[in-house]
Records
---
Amino acid sequence: MASPIDPSHSTPTNEPPVQVSDDAQGYYVPGEPLVDPRTPTGPIKDRWTTRKFENRLVNPANRRKLSIIIVGTGLAGGAAAATLGEAGYNVKSFCYQDSPRRAHSIAAQGGINAAKNYKEDGDSTHRLFYDTVKGGDYRSRESNVYRLAEVSANIIDQCVAQGVPFAREYGGLLDNRSFGGVQVSRTFYARGQTGQQLLIGAYQAMERQVAAGTVTEYTRHEMLELIVADGRARGIIARNMVTGEIETHLADVVVLASGGYGNVFYLSTNAMGSNVTATWRAHRKGAYFANPCYTQIHPTCIPVSGSHQSKLTLMSESLRNDGRIWVPKKKADCDKDPRQIPEQDRDYYLERIYPSFGNLVPRDIASRGAKNVCDEGRGVGPEVDGVRRGVYLDFADSIARLGEDAVREKYGNLFDMYKQITGENPYEVPMRIYPAVHYTMGGLWVDYDLQSSIPGLFVTGEANFSDHGANRLGASALMQGLADGYFVLPNTIREYLADGPFDALDESHPAVAEAKKSVEDRVQHFLSTNGTRSVDSYHRELGNIMWEYCGMERTEDGLKKAIDLIRGLREDFWRNVKVLGTADSLNQSLEKAGRVADFFELGELMCIDALNRRESCGGHFRAESQTEDGEALRHDDQFAYVAAWEFGGDGAQPVLHKEDLVYTAIEMKQRSYK
Amino acid sequence: MKVTLKIWRQPDAASPGAMHTYEVDKVSEDMSFLEMLDVLNEQLNAQGEDPVAFDSDCREGICGMCGLMINGQAHGPEVTTTCQLHMRSFKDGDEIVVEPWRSDAFPVLKDLVVDRGALDRIIQAGGFISVNTGSAPEAHSVPVPRDDAVRAFSAAACIGCGACVAACPNGSASLFLGAKITHLGELPQGQPERHSRVVDMVAQHDHEGFGGCTNIGECTAACPKEIPLDVISQLNRDLRTALVHGR
């Protein structure tokens, strides 16, 4: 229900947090408190309008003299490249794929939220704002979230004008569905391929600017270092992945729209190439990394089938509307044909534990439930490394009640996809599902204007941290990517660019030479190590550590153990990795080696962040912080802050800066799904 | 199961290539085709031989990055992307021939990796609706008949993988081109540029060295997204109308 608090209210509703516990003592250095220098003031509904007016304009003639580097071509990067190109800036766009259209935003299935209230069901900007802050378990910044809700309606207008073929009703108007457990229908969709259609829209807008000459695209280019000269981000070092050339690209400002870091777990629903290198290199150059431990684990993915597994595939969680989740009561039944297991020997554990929400409990609760029954040895499906990790999602009751045709009508494409991957027919045999890493809410710290702690470095989309708190609601990732790219960044970056163009930088500047040399040294190191283990084998082992100790449930002991394991493995990696091929050619092992090297450092920081945060919130569950019933227990009095980590140097401890979260337009509450 | 792979190896665009034979043992039928190649690459790496380069990214059939000729068929024996093809489609002892996309317009960069930049340049020539950010009217101001929206969506489902080109004996990209013409041409928002779009995109298609369409239909048979052949009819119809109007 909407907060009774007046949205124009401007005094805090919460006390500043005071942390009592210090689990991560000895792993970090306490730093100065952090305050967003660009935080807006005044009534929440006017903050964005005021900021757009306050931010200086750049004269159209001057825009031609200003250059912008954008790394990543997903919704956040592609939309920004198109929009800034249209405005007349010189944009250089980079992606590691062979075309901007491949970015992983393309894989989003469900839809995009927008507060259009087309269904007249009581939706509003304020309600979308409220749902998003609540869904994020009160760990996001309220001003940023309000702005996101505010611009959401413009996104739909823009996409429709571009020709995005959203689902429509017979009258020709746009259809909506409800998604992710909210009580209004505000999700716009294009069958199960909403991400694809939105990305193609942004891609086409960007290609139009390529033709117009305002955007230059650099495909098969991977950013490997950030150039910070005289206190400002001024460019990147990128590797041409075809020729191997290490290239220097300079500009007045740099935007990172390089996505999330779920692949630190090796297996995730991310694309094979998704990586943290762009943001991690920026972190090492001074950009704070915020809330790295906030990871979203999605409950309905197709389970791992063997040690060869390279990635996991998500299936829309709408399946939980009609499927019933269960495992056998007895371990002895786990390898039997599920159809032969009688009703009284099945444990519908979500229905048993959460009688009112049953199979529709939120993502983190459903995920943890599956992990617990598998840990007890009651998982189903193939044994991988000695454990069966899967639970049944059974449609037999729905098929009996509604008929197979009705079920096919609703879920046909998902059932087909399942059959394609597993070889099993879910109309006859229960599906098997298991949770998988899906999205990372943490990312580089940014101020309200999306600028990081390095002047001139802006961060958008999943790569930043600000909008989803500790947990992201369904259909909100697409909304945030496009909000940042089309509407927010273009209106905030101009305040920075109004001071430009900055002094021309030469490739001989020490900062440029240093960045380039460090990249060349790293490449040389990997190719000359000549060890015995492949990059993938290290990545897989790192992923196992992260999943075991920094996955769905985290403990103090487990996290400390993980940190030791990661440090040991990383050391071995640098001494013993085997990368064949040459530096001056297309070399996929070399590409992966650089990414995995950065995942090691990130993984350690994630564990330290998770260790420090001795509370359970959103996607972060600390076993030490639960209610008597085993539910997540937040500690607003201690942890209502953003943990922004500053790089302390190689081998040195990271520095923790805390940004207190202040709520004026909303009151914090504990959630309950019993 | 055990399979024998004959794989095209080519160090770079300038060097000649050749087929190499490899054996992969202990292949599980639950592996995807690309996971089987991952296993081969681990094997090669251990032996000190350069792993086989191939493209893939999302590995869930939507990004369009993967694409191999498998036993002479684009994306192999099933109607799906290479990443969604699983080893249960093969049997123990099979010999599998793996080549890159075959087309002059897609030069080989290394092994099984090709350059599909030509498809981006076709989109740059006109595969968009010219609307700047912020200038869009309210989304409900223009209703779109549901059937038109559905047809636009079906064409927009193209993932730009290039299988249509690889499958076509003429090396034509007409299915790719027709899909975009149909997607944008079915919608009211796409009408103002309908004529110039088709003329410009076709000109770019021809300029890139893609062949002409002679209605063979291999493209639609190979298309993992089952884009229908009639998008090419729409392409031709729109082109004729545009030319009659002197564009």
Note: The domain at 27-294+441-667 of chain A is CATH 3.50.50.60 (FAD/NAD(P)-binding domain).
---
Amino acid sequence: MNQLTNQLMSYFKVDAFSLFIGGFALFFYLLTRVYSLSFMRGRPGITRYNAYLFLTLISSWGAIFANHLIVFLVFWGFLGLLLYLLISFGQNERVPATAQKAMIIIGGSDALMILGLALIYHLSGSLNINEIHLGTDNKLALLAFICLACGALAKAGSMPFHSWIPDTAQDAPIPVTAYLPASLDKLLGIYFLARLTLTVFKLTPGLQTVLMMVGSITIVAAVMMALIQHDLKRLLGYHAVSQVGYMVLGIGTGIPVGIAGGLFHMLNHAIYKSCLFFCAGAVEKETGTTNLDKLGGLAKTMPITFISFLVAALAISGVPPLNGFASKWMIFQGVIETAHRGGHLWVLWLLAAMIGSAFTLASFMKVVHAVFLGQASQEEERRVGIKRETKPLMWIPMVVLAFLCLLFGLFAKAIPLDKFIFPSMGYEAAFPGVWNSSIATLLLVGAVFIGFLIFLMGTIMKTRRTEAFVGGERLQDHPEMRVSGTDFYHTIQDMRGLKGIYNLAEKKQFDPYEVGIREVSRLTNVMKILHNGILPTYLAWVLLGAAILMLVLMV
Amino acid sequence: MMLVEKYLPLFVAIPLGGAFLISLLGWKKRGLPEWIGTLIPAGLFIYSLVTLWATTKHGIVVHHLGGWSPPVGILIGADGLTAFMLVIVHFVAACVALYATDYIKKYTSPWIFYVLFLIILAGMNGVLTTCDFFNLFVFMEIASLAACTLVAFGTERHELEAAFKYGVMNTMGALFILLGIALLYGYTSELNMADMANIIAAKGPGSKIVTMAGVFFLVGFGLKAALVPFHAWLPDAHPSAPAPISAILSGLIIKSLGIYALFRIFICVLGMTPLLSSIFLFMGALSMATGAIMAMGQTDFKRLLAYSSLSQVGYIVFGLALGTPLGILGGLFHLFNHSVGKSLLFLTAGSVEYATGTRKLNEMGGLSNKMPVTGTSSLAGAMSIGGIPPFGGFFSKLIIIFAAVQAGHIGYAIWAVGTGVLTLVYLMKAMKQAFRGALAERWQAVREVPMRMRLAMLILAFVCLTGGLLLIPQLKDLFLNQAAKVLIDGRMYSKIWGGF
């Protein structure tokens, strides 16, 4: 018995890195669990829901602490099935299709990982993560790396395997989205990618460039999609994709500060993105919709949700002194560092990262305006009396997360980096650029204070307020005439060149899942012509097959 | 040991006797056919476990029919591979028979069903246990004819058409096999397979007659196993039969009459050559992809599953044809997983048909709400076939892909992975269209199927879920390794048996 236990234990290994990820998996599980208590109340199958959620935690621990790659893959693959089952708790008619899509993309990439494991075993003769050290300069090792990286990227939701995330965000119950695609799957995917690039494989500079390119494209393309969304949850889903780009970019640099930044960003993203989703869930629960066209003016009725959302939105946009800024800053440092490897591509990556940041801010301005500020739509106005702040069980997780955004930003070095990230990497990353969060915060607070003084003293207070006036009609009489914020970026959508791309994207031309299924169906139709159901044809095949076999074997 | 040897012919005799008894008495007495038909496979399942234990201990169990020793007498025997197959056959058959007790009530004469069912069982057991080439042919035809009749059991237009196609194509395959046996008999003057193997080995390789016979066997048994391009009967025949028989056809018959016979003959009797093995690899890979691509376009639940069987048989043949210990292990394990998983899926498709009266996927939807047991067990089957951990099918697919890479067939490994993705696509599509989502208006009155049908599906689903445990070293030595050993060293078969 003892021997069996030892045998089992040898499949697992606990180190600082896995402990860090496993700990946060638990943390997000607890928050989600608390949030679900209120959010999922009264829905059918709640016991099963809780069981699946708990199994998700257990099997993610299994994957995180596994040292044997097959054990790892068993837990990892099981998570895909659990995600499928959890998405199925969603309540609209698109849910089955969305669950299917997530399952196929994640399960399909797991099949690729089997091939990766087989190649690793073929090359190194071992399946223990701590014993494998491979280069990526020969073809087989490169193939193995690509297969495994596909699995990691699909889980994290990087392009080109991203397309399940926006759909899931839109259709799955909010706590599921907040726990899986927004936090846990990011932790797992980036954790595994980091393991791959840091210990298992030694990347060639070419491969690092490819990773950085994947990251940059993901950042920009996904944020461009996010800009034009009309649904709060779907918009957040696209941001969940876009942010993965930063993590991949950071890890792809191969520079300590970049990698640390990527991992830090992973943690930060999990924090603010689940916070944002939790807020979206509160909005959905209270108003019954997440359509940006119908929302508005919620800041008055839901102040706690509004503040939490604002903090998280500023964090994801990389506004100092919040945590998103700290990690993005480190990633930028890493990208700039790659300059001395030669080549000028780093400028492109840096540009992509900056554009991504700017557009993220832009799209969150739209969201904050459309949901919390602005005017409420007519039907919302009617509900003003009914609407109220969300329940404590739902706002407590949000507030905790929003607080963490602030904490991890203010004390970036002292808490998350020194306690979690650097021990995980096993070494400390040197900061080439100067960033002292405490001083910076003081300066910022000072700046805000001075701004406030100017506001008080200056002439700004003497602004004139007047009624809105539209061509002789009073706006109050036409409540449907309002600026909802959803159309802020129509100009971008209509820009020459971009318009065509957006149209193709709306038709899902860039979704490998849809394109793949369409192409295979085309092949199916060709094959169906061959299977015409006529007996003599089939008999002819048999004879033809016999003739070919005869030819091959006898001659 | 002695007892196991002594009663080995019971595997054929009991089902035949049961069939006789039912046709004699059963049509008068209600409920009797169901009892006999269920208890026989269940009892033989226990006996097959005993046989498995005996083969683990002694390597081989031989019975001299009528007490006559060879070369005069005919041998019946079981080695690791036979015992492995017997266990699978009786386990699945017992579950299917249990399921059928409720399912078959909607047909007019259940007793005919059970007679034919037991004859199929007798035929399969005969093929598995016999050591005589001609007996193998006879038992194979017994099973095939009974199966053909059962395909036509519903006597609707498309069922009769499918049975006709099945009958014609199977007869064609049988003719090829008979021709091959005749050639080999002429060459070796022997019908005992073990002795035949010795003579072929002694005469040395390169004989044109043996190669010729090999081609005929490839075509004939390839047709029984539904390897592309000899597969065309399968997508018509398997969906047309009543669901329990579809489960038997896809789960057991193509494996015992097709794959088992194919590899028993090629590895243990004729001897595998590199050229043959690369042909098997190619046909396996071709079947995998053809089945999966065709399954993508199906709207009939059972027809989709039938094409999926085609694809999975490709995996099994591919694994076995790799010839490495790991590949053979993977192939056999996949055979087990597919038997259990695919019979389960056919049974759940049968349950859906039982409850709603349709097999059209696009008319269903949301059935999980009304039929939770069917929905859940169907998902378990799909996960096992689709290769999602921790279900059994994941491990066998993993082993096959590992083996392909180890043997240096990287291209084939990628091919197998690609097909694996497609497998997941069509299975998830079927799951979504049948079970997920909101319940359509017309199915509001649908009810979950009766208790015994549910029980049978749950047992199979449980085995799908826990199938991976068979890889635990102690269980693996008992079950899989014994069977794999026979195929790894094909000559072992003849050395032990030829010593009389």
Note: Chain B touches chain A through 61 residues (CB under 8 Å).
